[in-house]
Amino acid sequence: MTQPINDEFQPPDPALLAEESAAYEPAEPVSRAAEVLERHHDRLMALPGVVMFFESLDPVGRLAILIGVKAAGYLAVLPQAVDGVPVIKEVIGEVDAY
Asked: 58: how many CB neighbours lie within 10 A of its CB?
């Protein structure tokens, strides 16, 4: 089944999009892990080899922080927990963000 073509569609004005994105305010953290990540963002990103981190769940479903690094050699510098939230360590390789 195909969608009918809408001849009335107009792409958004890029100037308006820029104004809206400039006014963006992040939502309040919704979990303990999110609060910890917000508080320690700069320190975590400064660790050697760290390329990303986010809130996650451990294998049994408890709140955790997943930290991804470039290579296995960097796993040893990662903490076991941050402010009491357990850390899951994972090698993900280089991240190339566009």
From this structure: 13
